[in-house]
């Protein structure tokens, strides 16, 4: 057995943890670029609270609240320009996966020579950027503890995950109270994203005993809490456990990689604007069915962690039950995908890094078969 396992720099977790923001980052400098989405954080009052917490510790805030779902390279470029002009010492991402991924890459490359387009095309990040602090307000993406950033290229309508150890957050400040205002729909699809991370990580052909232990724990957390959080958004214990599930799954997949559901989810998001968690939910059961013969024992463990009988097929049934209870789409035809686009999506997915973790190698034709069955 041989493996490597890396962790994010620091995680501060717990109800009310956001109150520590200023003291946790004041040693980093005097000016922060605060990156968030366009409105949600303003509506909940969280944005003002974060700015006040920083001000109380003599940190000025430069607000960049222009991040759209699935941030484009242009959005990243504008953020980099602002961070440079204002000579920001750190970047704080506040929001869901899109805001955090945008903030993360801005911090990572702001003072590097290359442009965002070059890094998107594969140029390596060669050294540390400025510190990135993640303040997640959803529970699912795991980006608060991972070293990748998913970005969208508007020119070729593609999404890609940029990876570098230099993108690891300096601090993940995870306060489950920030997720209390999430509507049920977002709770559902971000939770299914976390579940997909955990299951794909657990069965990945690059899994190791540590990632497997984390992944199974995350699956158990999702199984025990996602419906509670979905049905009653104010259930702080369920929210806390879902925030934990997101982190734990993120720590796992950052080391094991993912699988075919994530490889196929990216073209679905980039070409049809399907939310990432919704795409994962549609694809996961079909990818599990494709893989199950090669990992029967592991899928049986997944079924057990999901509260079902210890049989591989029961894991698929458990995931489908969850999707149905939360009324999430189960077919590509439910989300506006045209059948004729399936071959193009398979072609886009065949070289995705996530596919390398899939326990059963999938050819382009087999990816077409998976998408066709999910249609
Ligand atoms: Fe994901």
From TrEMBL:
PROSITE patterns reported in the protein's UniProt record: ADH_IRON_2
Note the Pfam families from the entry: ADH_Fe_C, Fe-ADH
Give the UniProt keywords, A-Z. NAD, Oxidoreductase
Alphabetical list of InterPro entries matching this protein: ADH_Fe/GldA (IPR001670), ADH_Fe_C (IPR056798), ADH_Fe_CS (IPR018211), Alcohol_dehydrogenase_Fe (IPR039697)
Domain Alcohol dehydrogenase iron-type/glycerol dehydrogenase GldA, chain residue ranges per copy: 9-176
Q: Which GO terms describe its molecular function?
A: alcohol dehydrogenase (NAD+) activity; metal ion binding
Task: Please indicate if the UniProt record lists NAD as a keyword.
Answer: yes
Which family does this protein fall into?
Answer: Belongs to the iron-containing alcohol dehydrogenase family.
Q: What is this protein called?
A: Iron-containing alcohol dehydrogenase
Species name for this entry? Answer: candidate division NPL-UPA2 bacterium Unc8
């Amino acid at each position: 057995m041989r493996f490597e396992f890396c962790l994010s720099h620091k995680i501060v977790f717990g109800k009310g943890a956001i109150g520590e923001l200023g003291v946790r980052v004041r040693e980093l400098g005097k000016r922060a670029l605060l990156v968030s989405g366009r409105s949600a954080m303003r509506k909940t009052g969280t944005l003002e609270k974060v700015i006040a917490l920083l001000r109380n510790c003599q940190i000025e805030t430069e607000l960049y609240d222009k991040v759209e779902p699935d941030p484009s390279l242009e959005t990243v470029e504008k953020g980099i320009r602002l961070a440079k002009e204002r000579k920001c010492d750190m970047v704080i991402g506040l929001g869901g996966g899109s805001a955090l991924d945008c903030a993360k890459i801005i911090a990572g490359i702001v003072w590097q020579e290359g442009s965002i387009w070059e890094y998107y095309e594969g140029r390596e990040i060669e050294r540390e950027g400025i510190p990135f602090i993640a303040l997640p307000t959803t529970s699912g993406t795991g980006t608060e503890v991972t070293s990748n950033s998913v970005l969208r290229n508007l020119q070729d309508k593609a999404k890609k995950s940029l990876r570098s150890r230099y993108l690891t957050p300096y601090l993940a400040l995870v306060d489950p109270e920030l997720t209390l205002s999430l509507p049920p729909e977002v709770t559902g699809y971000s939770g299914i994203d976390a579940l997909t991370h955990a299951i794909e990580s657990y069965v990945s052909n690059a899994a190791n005993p540590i990632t497997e232990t984390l992944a199974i724990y995350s699956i158990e957390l999702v199984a025990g809490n996602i419906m509670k959080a979905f049905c009653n958004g104010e259930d702080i214990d369920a929210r806390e456990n879902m925030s934990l599930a997101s982190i734990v799954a993120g720590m796992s997949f950052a080391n094991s990689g993912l699988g075919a559901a994530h490889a196929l989810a990216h073209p679905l998001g980039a070409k049809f604007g399907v939310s990432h968690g919704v795409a994962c939910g549609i694809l996961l059961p079909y990818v599990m069915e494709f893989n199950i013969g090669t990992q029967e024992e592991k899928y049986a463990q997944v079924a057990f962690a999901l509260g079902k009988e210890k049989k591989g097929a029961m894991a698929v049934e458990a995931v489908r039950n969850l999707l149905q209870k939360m009324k999430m789409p189960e077919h590509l035809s439910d989300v506006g995908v045209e059948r004729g686009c399936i071959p193009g999506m398979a072609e886009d997915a065949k070289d995705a890094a996530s596919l390398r973790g899939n326990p059963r190698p999938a050819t382009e034709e087999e990816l077409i078969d998976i998408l066709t069955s999910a249609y």
